[in-house]
Design goal:
Layout (H helix, E strand, L loop, with lengths): L2 H4 L11 H9 L29 H12 L6 E6 L13 E5 L4 H15 L6 E7 H6 L2 H9 L5 E6 L34 H7 L4 E6 L3 H17 L3 E6 L13 H8 L9 E4 L1 H29 L1
Parallel strand pairs: 1-2, 1-3, 3-4, 4-6, 5-6
Antiparallel strand pairs: 5-7
Helix pairs in contact: 3-8, 4-6
Bound molecules: thiamine diphosphate and iron/sulfur cluster (SF4).
């Protein structure tokens, strides 16, 4: 979706919904340095959502959408679950896939987009819950990584199946008791970040979404590396406050507590050698671009 395509004919401008007018006038499509700091000042690509009040998934959605390097040429692939309640309100192209199939759909989509738009960069980003990514969709998740499909997989890890009332998931902690899993989890949390690395992902991060600047960095890295090199995986802790008995103001603290160095969401990152090289090149180009812009601004004010 380019800004050109959503431009409203002058004659029809007045009768379009105000939200659409705002999107055309002040969204960040096409802005090179877009990021989480645009939230609250530019038209956001998601404003309302139907998640529980204070659900960290809603924060995560905002940060991710604000950080996509090229939202007008990005297609997101979702799956059934709490995340899927948000997609109808997102101003980025998106597809809802059958639960668990998201990485298979994204594989076909990415390949089709490369054939249909050979001269244009199209990013594909999967965003699904842990039930969809690690349990029911694990086959599709892994096979996409084995095949080196060039897209990013983001898992909103809330450590259970939230949308269906709290069943046990592979990413649930050992011993945790949920509403629909009264016996308590008998096994350890599946180590998907390690599995992702072994399965061929070039960039893997495990973290919470407590810090927007960190989310911005990892999203940009993951999308750029997937675009140029191969699959990338982000596992983001977005606790289900409803299931862990927290109120709407307590999600942030829960994430801060869970990212301490000895906790399960302590920041963990893996970058392959080719991906390291790419990130270094991108950083050098960015530095050059910023220096040139500064010089130009200096000339304009002189
Ligand atoms: C093929 C299929 N199987 C099962 C379901 C039922 N279902 C809907 S949402 C959901 C749980 C989603 O859990 P998760 O992926 O962890 O996302 P969350 O809701 O926790 O964000 C399930 C099992 C479905 N809709 N379709
Ligand atoms: S059920 Fe849990 S994960 Fe789903 S919207 Fe509510 S707080 Fe968020």
């Amino acid at each position: 979706m380019s800004k050109e395509k959503i431009k409203i004919s002058e004659d029809l401008f007045d009768i379009m919904p105000s939200d659409y007018q705002d999107l055309v006038k002040s969204s960040t499509y096409g802005k090179e340095d877009r990021g989480w700091k645009d939230i609250g000042t530019s038209k956001e690509l998601i404003e309302q959502h139907s998640l529980c009040a204070g659900c960290p998934e809603s924060m995560a959605f905002r940060y991710i959408l604000a950080s996509l390097p090229n939202p007008e040429d990005t297609v997101m692939v979702g799956s059934t679950g709490c995340t899927s309640l948000v997609f109808p309100m997102v101003a980025v192209h998106n597809i809802h896939s059958l639960f668990g199939n998201q990485n298979a759909i994204a594989s076909g989509l990415k390949r089709a987009l490369s054939v249909r738009f050979p001269d244009r960069t199209k990013d594909v980003v999967v965003l699904a819950g842990d039930g969809a990514t690690v349990d029911i969709g694990l086959d599709m998740t892994l096979q996409a990584w084995f095949r080196q499909e060039k897209f990013t997989t983001i898992c909103f890890d809330n450590e259970l199946y939230a949308n269906t009332g709290g069943q046990e998931s592979g990413l649930m902690q050992k011993g945790f008791v949920a509403k629909m899993a009264p016996v308590g989890k008998l096994f350890e949390k599946v180590r998907l970040p390690e599995i992702a690395r072994e399965s061929g992902c070039h960039y893997v991060v495990n973290c919470t979404v407590s810090k927007p600047s960190l989310v911005e960095k990892v999203i940009r890295n993951a999308v750029h590396i997937a675009r140029e090199i191969g699959p990338t995986y982000l596992q983001l802790y977005t606790p289900c406050i409803l299931e862990i008995g927290k109120n709407s103001m307590e999600g942030l603290q829960e994430m801060r507590d869970s990212e301490k160095p000895t906790e399960r969401f302590a920041y963990k990152e893996y970058v392959s050698e080719p991906a390291k090289q790419l990130l270094a090149e991108l950083a050098a180009k960015d530095k050059e671009r910023k220096a040139a812009a500064k010089q130009l601004a200096g000339q304009a004010t002189a």
